[in-house]
């Protein structure tokens, strides 16, 4: 919370607005307790201007609650009846107009100088078997000076070493994905976190929305994204081993030690995900359009136009 | 989170929807840090279906953040520039269709059997000078058996003893209001909390919205309301010494030891509240109307009709 | 916190006292940040009557602090200089005279009825790859009714299936140990936790002291012990797949999702554990003997006598 | 946790050891729930080397527990039987050999730059009616530049304005004590906190031990002491309006918004404090002497000698 930068350029807005959300349909063979980690909240760098949530069928109040998990994430908790369950969320969010900061000179803190709550983020976790990648981490990156430089070298290495593509399952650990040579965004993030922790850089897993702004639109259906953060010089810093270029428009949903903490959906019982739609587009709207207008399906012309504009501006 | 009641009467909905919100205008003579404790979140008994927040002028992201206070309340934190500041919030909330539960047989726990986190709610606080009302509390209510009965006797006594009306200021304590004989909802709540704590009943102050549903509409402008909760038989129970009748439609914004924890607005510097509008009406809508439709001013015909219906039903 | 049982038998004490502690010597080739999770605190069922801590060489205050980790465990944090480091702790602790409770009728809660903080203990973690043991868990134990019965069946199965003995390393997961057929106490605990989580029983890993009281003394050097707890009927319940018999005298040091949370020592850098002595003996003393009297090496005659007495009594 | 200062003077120890503790006897006419906030724990600047706790009569485990309050203080919770209750605590604590730091140039943060958790320490509380002292605070101290300077000016003013002496009761607020002109350490601390909060300096109340080291011994019986802390330049800084000179040897027991959070004893029922002894002396011992040696009554010759030495050194 600091004073506004002196003499801002009035011709460039400091923030943009993004409409983001999802629609999920499940088929449940029996009443099923379910958790959803999908709700972004106000954070430094993002402001929720409007939101709406819709669950069909309508559940009694006692079968739908929210709680904060140990990482401060909002978790929705449902007892869904057998049959079809539809869950949707629609948001208008304000985020910075600038790209992820690049701060290559940030130093690496000595372990003895880290705040105590950060030590937890040096330990291995379910999908981050950093203890098993320690030797390789030091061999590959141990000679690099500087905290940012080391984390960036990890991302650069993963970009070269890992090919984007399925192969992993919900049980794949960082080391397993790394050794397989194939990775989706979740695996890129796990591997990045694992190498950083092995190097004594506190690191955590992040899930959220990453719209196609300022980049060539990806015509594959949008999905939730995963990236990671490294604690450097007193703050969490964004790294994205999957894309490995600074981006604009990230909306952070949740953070945790790894994907086991922040799976967007956990079902205690058999569930089939029958339909999934995720959206995230820059918008000039100042409020959510009425539901009757439907959810966006693909990047809207407006969104594309704005993205193109943004490309030119940058 | 329990199974739905067996064989519910399909002709009676279990929940109703309420549109609630506020619009506040301030005049600030200089840049002013401000806190707002105004945002309800999902809780047992309330579900936020839609929300929108609007602040004019638009603030840089760094001058507007949110945090959770030690009581788990969401606090908005602004650095407002000099001049006019407009803050508004508009919500669609689902709450139970039934009135505040009345459970006259709930027993009183011995202090030694209270969970440790509840002991904090036996201590005096800024506006709850329960230590100074202890002798009177035991004299008036010490003979009453039962936890609910004792808390209800406190409310009944305050109804008789205190006349609704201004007189208190932002500095008035429970004892001062009690001795003056005049009280607004905040004073009723402080006095109720004070007598309960003096009697070793853990009690906390609550602020929120209380729409006119199922009661004669109050044509005075609506305001935020304050009531209190007493920890009885393992849960917080609602008491409202101001109205002292069970009500439907409460939306809980925040809880704390007293009003100093949950003032809806705290300004660090001079500020003038130039305009204040608060609304809360039952609605059949399933989403918030567009902003262009404006904020509700007085109970809408729809709201009144629903209230009347509700009255007949009850 | 309840009233004492009516008419206790004055001939049987309700509690016993245990002297427990450890002495660790490390050889460090360079200044090394270290964490120790070794300090028991007051909990339901244990009361620290006296304690002393000794670190040689004496460290400046700024190089030795304590903090609470996310599970509420006390963690000592050192910056140890190069050379030899000696850390010792000596405690006098009061614990119940009775054995671990056996409550075979405790039911199993439905997931939807668990308190939200317990849901975290259903997720897999670094060494508890419960997701990979799910199929086997339901095949082996899915037919068993009752929460206690299911957890006990897990312990009985592990007793039969696993042979006590080394083979595991600091990286071995529950599934790996289970498949190897060999386990030390840490692996028994991880496997117990993993099967319980797979069965939707919230379970956590526990480390502590377990003296030889009421059992044949084990003449191998004493070590820290690991067991686990299952959340049943509103409280954490003790299970010990390694011994699988109720015991008296457990002193709980720390709890966590698995051993990665509560390793008794974590060194950020190379360290050699040159010497380790752990003790835990029943005692009639009411205070710690002077340091000059030394630390106990093997079960003292007094301890053995008391243990024997206890055996007769039981 | 930083590296030791380079080239320390080996002739001056960086730390000293203090033996501190208390002995309290109560007479209870009936079984009484009691809270004690008396247990110091490891903190930056203090290290508990040894401790012992003694309660007579011996209570069943279920009638004596500990918990952490919302401020992180350890609270002992007893259900004491009718009759005499003896509670004692004896500690060996390592603290810095230097006096309270004096840092007159520390600046005052703008409210908008304070970390969110600090905002809570700007609000009034039970005995800190800072809202009622606001006008006087700004009139007296508003012109002073600098955070440390402002807090120090508050202390200097209170030294002049308030005379040490009884007059206050357990219900006396900061303003009441201030207006009376008489104050004990608790009132000095409340008044200091109140003026600082009114000036937008986050401030909290502290209770602890303050031995007579480096000062003329006070031959009145020792008691617990109260002082306060102000958040300046990223850390809590010690101020003591009662003594208003830097001291060596403070052992911090607990912190809170005011004395209602950290009363050393709270009894829920009638209790008479029949005997109270508090000690705190510098010592060369490296462990607590046996209980048979008794608790120290008055400053020991050893303690006096060390104090005298310290005086010369300083």
Structure, described:
Chains A, B, C, D: Residues 177-243 form the Transglutaminase-like domain. Chains A, B, C, D: It holds the Pfam family Transglut_core. Chains A, B, C, D: This is Transglutaminase. The structure is a homotetramer of 314-residue chains. Chain A contains seven helices and 14 strands. The first copy, chain A, is α+β, with helices and mostly antiparallel strands and 314 residues long. The first copy, chain A, has two domains: 10-97 and 263-313, Immunoglobulin-like (Sandwich); 111-261, Roll (C8orf32 fold), CATH 3.10.620.30. In chain A, a hairpin with a 5-residue loop joins strand 4 (64-68) and strand 5 (74-80). The longest helix of chain A is centred in the middle third of the chain and has 15 residues, at 147-161. The relative contact order of chain A is 0.21. Strand 3 (47-56) of chain C pairs antiparallel with strand 3 (47-56) of chain D.
Name the descriptors:
314 residues; 14 strands; globular; four-stranded antiparallel β-sheet; disordered C terminus; homotetramer; disordered N terminus; 2 domains; alpha+beta; 7 helices; Immunoglobulin-like; C8orf32 fold
Task: Kindly summarize this structure in a few lines.
4 copies of one chain form a homotetramer. Chain A has 314 residues and is an alpha+beta fold.
Secondary structural class of chain A: alpha+beta
* Total count of domains of chain A: 2
How many beta-strand elements of chain A? Answer: 14
Shape of chain A: globular
Pattern of helices and strands of chain A:
EEEEEEHHHEHEHEEEEHEEH
As a whole number of angstroms, the C-alpha radius of gyration of chain A is: 20 Å
Count of individual helical segments of chain A: 7
Rounded mean pLDDT of chain A is 90
Strand numbers in spatial order across the main sheet of chain A:
3-6-1-14
Poorly predicted residue ranges of chain A: 1-11, 303-314
Pfam family, one (chains A, B, C, D): Transglut_core
Protein name (chains A, B, C, D): Transglutaminase
InterPro entries (chains A, B, C, D): Papain-like_cys_pep_sf (IPR038765), Transglutaminase-like (IPR002931)
Domain Transglutaminase-like (chains A, B, C, D): 177-243
């Amino acid at each position: 919370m600091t004073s506004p930068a002196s003499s801002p350029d009035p011709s460039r807005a400091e923030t943009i607005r993004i409409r983001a959300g999802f629609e999920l349909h499940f088929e449940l063979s029996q009443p099923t307790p379910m958790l959803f980690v999908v709700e972004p909240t106000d954070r430094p760098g993002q402001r929720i201007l409007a939101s709406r949530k819709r669950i069909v069928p309508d559940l009694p109040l006692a079968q739908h609650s929210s709680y904060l998990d140990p990482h401060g994430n909002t978790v929705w908790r449902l007892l869904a009846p057998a049959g079809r369950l539809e869950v949707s969320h629609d948001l208008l969010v304000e985020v910075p107009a600038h790209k992820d900061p690049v701060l290559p000179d940030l130093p690496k803190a000595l372990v003895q100088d880290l705040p105590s709550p950060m030590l937890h983020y040096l330990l291995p976790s379910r999908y981050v078997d950093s203890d098993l990648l320690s030797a390789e981490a030091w061999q590959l990156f141990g000679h690099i000076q500087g905290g940012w430089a080391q984390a960036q070298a990890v991302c650069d290495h993963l970009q070269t070493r890992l090919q984007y593509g399925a192969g992993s399952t919900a049980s794949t650990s960082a080391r397993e994905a790394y050794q397989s040579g194939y990775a989706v965004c979740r695996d890129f993030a796990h591997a990045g976190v694992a190498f950083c922790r092995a190097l004594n850089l506190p690191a955590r897993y992040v899930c959220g929305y990453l719209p196609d702004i300022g980049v060539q639109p990806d015509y594959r259906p949008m999905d939730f994204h995963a990236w990671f953060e490294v604690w450097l010089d007193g703050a969490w810093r964004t790294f994205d081993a999957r894309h490995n270029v600074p981006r604009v428009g990230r909306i952070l949903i949740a953070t945790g030690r790894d994907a086991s903490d922040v799976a967007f959906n956990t079902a205690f019982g058999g569930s089939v995900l029958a339909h999934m739609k995720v959206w995230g587009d820059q918008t000039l709207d100042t409020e959510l359009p009425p539901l009757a207008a439907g959810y966006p399906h693909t990047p809207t012309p407006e969104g594309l136009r704005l993205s193109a504009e943004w490309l030119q501006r940058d």
